[in-house]
Design brief:
Strand content: 25-35%
Strand order of the largest sheet: 1-2-3-6-7
Structural class: alpha+beta
Number of strands: 7
Helix content: 25-40%
Shape: globular
Distance between the termini: 32 Å
Oligomer: single chain
Number of helices: 3
Length: about 170
């Protein structure tokens, strides 16, 4: 397993839609392992493949609390089938937008169809933090960031800050 470098805002790759995975093979399983290793190292609770520069429809999540046993989940070609009218608000952050957090309102529950690490089709009814995390990571696969849910003014300030930091780093 290899820890991969994270793609950071304003990298245009973060706005790219990811392509479906045709079949689950040894390379995809290795990618899943690398993504989990990268996510745990960051540390984070979710990571989409695009965040390590791989525009494929795969994400990993582990919402186990600190001190609990790890519960790594791999979602290949995830698709939200249904979402509730009921809403919930969580303070979200993103490994690709380090040290920035904002409250985001999303559906409280979702039903997601996906392939697991073995290529078997699965369904999950998610609520709470898992539902929020799934929606956040699936958004990444579609080129959407959590800052797209905040006010335009706040979003522009965040993008400006990260663009300036990227230019400074490049010098």
């Amino acid at each position: 397993m290899t820890i991969k470098p994270l793609i950071i805002l304003p990298d245009p790759l973060l706005r790219q839609a990811s392509t479906p995975i045709e079949r689950v093979d040894v390379d995809i399983k290795r990618l899943a392992d690398d993504m989990l290793e990268t996510m745990y190292d960051a540390p984070g609770i979710g990571l989409a493949a695009i965040q390590i520069g791989v525009p494929r429809r795969m994400l990993v999540i582990d919402v186990a609390r600190e001190g609990e046993e790890k519960q790594p989940l791999v979602f290949i070609n995830p698709e939200i089938l249904t979402s509730s009218d009921e809403r919930s608000v969580y303070e979200e952050g993103c490994l690709s937008i380090p040290d920035y957090y904002a409250e985001v309102e999303r559906p409280a529950t979702v039903k997601v169809k996906y392939l697991d690490r073995d290529g078997k089709e699965q369904l999950v009814d998610a609520d709470g933090l898992l539902a929020t995390c799934l929606q956040h990571e699936i958004d990444h696969l579609n080129g959407v960031l959590f800052i797209d849910y905040i006010s335009r003014l706040k979003r522009e300030m965040v993008i400006k800050k990260f663009t300036k930091a990227a230019k400074t780093k490049a010098l």
